[in-house]
Amino acid sequence: MSHKIADKPWFHYPAFSWQTKRAVVIGGGIAGCQSAWHLLQTGWHVTLIERHKKLATEASGNLAGAILPKMTALESLGEDFYVQAFRYTLKQLEQLAASHQHLHYDLCGVLQLAHNAREEKRWQALQKRGFEDDFLQCLNTAQTQQQSGIHAPYKSVFFPQGGWINPASFCKALIDHPNCCVLLESEALNLKKVKQQWQVLDNQHHLIAQAEVIIMSSGKDIKQLTQYNDLPIMPVLGQTTQANASATSQKLKTVIGHEGYLTPAINGQHIFGATFERDKNQAIIDPIADKTNQQQLYKYLAEFSDSLGKIESSHAAIRMTTPDRFPYAGALIDRTFYNNNYADIHQGKYWKSYPSAHYQKGLFILAGLGSRGLTTAGYCAALLADIINGKQPNDKITQALHAGRFMVKRLKQNSH
Ligand SMILES: Cc1cc2nc3c(=O)[nH]c(=O)nc-3n(C[C@H](O)[C@H](O)[C@H](O)COP(=O)(O)OP(=O)(O)OC[C@H]3O[C@@H](n4cnc5c(N)ncnc54)[C@H](O)[C@@H]3O)c2cc1C
User: Fold this and answer.
1) What pLDDT digit, counting tens, does each position of 6-20 carry?
2) Chain segment 306-330, per-residue pLDDT in tens
3) For position 270, which CATH number holds?
């Protein structure tokens, strides 16, 4: 079938169908575990491959991360994505919590402080937009103090349903299914297509697993398997710090967001940070990063910061981000097909017809979740499962997450 430029055929998905519902997921962080869960819910058998001894040890290895949406002053596609993802995750957590008592989280609310001129402007704009109180409230200084339980002299945007989660417990709950086989201490380093199947091989070229469908969700090492796919993605090193709670700090009732975030006491400890260091792809704990986190906390919440007990490093890891900050969730494109069929789209021939996109059948990706992966991975994985299950989603968010979007951008600019 052919389409006009306005239909954006380069973002169309075919109605994928498969001989068997068996998939291999590479990577046991939140992206891989969410991908597995969504396929398991729709009748698939999943083999999940993780190179470490445990799941959730790299970016998803933080002790506690915040769950909240990212709001923009005016409505935007980005905001729509984060709000939908946030709502989706809340529903999923409710469902999981009913059968998984070890799921460690608390939807105690999140206060995003209006701590600088830009946040103050956002606060003003959000106040005018009139949200439902159970989703977002714009609080004045007295209300912020009351809601937080500590001295926090700021206006704030309050998300009563937000909170924190321990990502390892999230991952564990997601893969707890009789049709999920988890292979730990296995490193997937090569893919080979044999007839309809993709074989996943280790560094000795030994077969680890095979299936028609592969989901690549290997975090910072996503390029190992997708190096020829033109997926711009950048590492950002982050470290969180933990501190023993004090009588004063125990009064904190909500998660607080400033430049970074701060949790209430969890088993007697607060988690705060995180640092952002671009282009560093080695995750090494650094005492200087703890100083940075401490200074930042002191800058915004001095009394709270001064009250803390022993401070130590919590976790350091690489989160991956993309140039437009949207993750990649979709099928891997057939680059040759794009080059051959869409080479002239920069000329804007609106009357010309173009064929629908072609993909490397069976290869899918969920990566580039940046610093909000705990909130967004579930929604992205649901979309990915829809694509794999042949539902052909084609809305603006699906297009924004498409793994071929930067290639299309270059073709449009004639800069490929
Ligand atoms: C310090 C810090 C604080 C954060 N705070 C928050 C927060 O408050 N809220 C929030 O929403 N998000 C937060 N994030 C971001 C969030 O944690 C990430 O977006 C998310 O964890 C990314 O998940 P992932 O599954 O893509 O990557 P990872 O968790 O890194 O998972 C990838 C997995 O793939 C495995 N792997 C890689 N290559 C292979 C291979 N070849 N074979 C087998 N296995 C392989 C790795 O071992 C790893 O376990 C934070 C991140 C950091 C680093």
Assistant:
1) 789 999 999 999 999
2) 999 999 999 999 999 999 999 999 9
3) 3.30.9.10
Measure 374 CA to ligand 1 centroid, in angstroms.
9
CA–CA dist 135, 122 (Å, integer): 16
Judge contact between 219 and 367, C-beta under 8 A.
Answer: yes
Task: Decide which of 263, 292, 321 is a domain's last residue.
Answer: 321
Check whether residue 10 and residue 147 sit in a common domain: no
Q: What is the mean pLDDT of residues 102-118?
A: 97
Tell me how far the alpha carbon of residue 252 lies from the centroid of ligand 1, in angstroms: 27
Query: What does the alpha-carbon distance between residue 22 and residue 227 come to, in Å, rounded to a whole number?
Result: 25
What separation in Å is there between the alpha carbon of 370 and the centre of ligand 1?
9
Asked if the structure places residue 82 within a domain, the reply is no
pLDDT tens digits for range 238-251: 999 999 999 999 99
Q: Are 244 and 335 in contact (CB under 8 A)?
A: no
Structural domain containing residue 406:
2-59+169-227+324-413
Q: Which residue puts its alpha carbon closest to atom 45 of ligand 1?
A: 27
Mean pLDDT, range 287-312, rounded to an integer: 96
Supply the residue whose CA is at minimum distance from atom 20 of ligand 1.
373
| Ligand 1 pocket test, candidate residues 60, 170, 286, most atoms within 8 A of CB | 60
User: What separation in angstroms does the CA of 245 have from each of 221, 262, 304, 307?
Assistant: 36, 12, 10, 8
